[in-house]
Amino acid sequence: MDEELLIEEMAEYLEDNGEINIIGEDLELFIQAVDDKEGYAYVSNTNKEFEDSREAIEWAVVQFDGTENIESWE
Fold first, then answer.
1. What is the enclosing helix (H) or strand (E) of 54?
2. What's the CA gap between 34 and 18, in Å, rounded?
């Protein structure tokens, strides 16, 4: 799947479900929506804060060194 399409699909999933778990061989990231907005809307299990779902997913993809290293997400 095209990287841009996958990023968009994952960002929409995060918006719709309020959380996403992204798994790779050596890394697992969890991002969730934050109810109490204090300048950010999403936070990762590494305490990284994001203004929107797209920003969160783009950051996650960089952590995995590209979508090709993401084994699954839910």
1. helix 53-63
2. 8
Q: Is 63 helix (H, G, I), strand (E, B) or coil?
A: helix
As a whole number, the mean pLDDT across the chain is 93
What pLDDT does residue 35 have?
A: 79
Whole-number pLDDT of residue 1 = 67
Task: Read off the pLDDT of residues 25-58 as tens digits, 9 standing for 90 and up.
Answer: 999 999 999 976 666 799 999 999 999 999 999 9
What are the tokens at 37? 């907005």
Strand pairing of 70-73 and 42-44?
unpaired
H/E run at residue 17: helix 3-17
Helices 53-63 and 3-17: crossing angle in degrees, nearest 10, is 130
Question: Residue written as tokens 């996403």?
Answer: 20
Angle at 29 between CA 26 and CA 34, to 5 degrees: 170
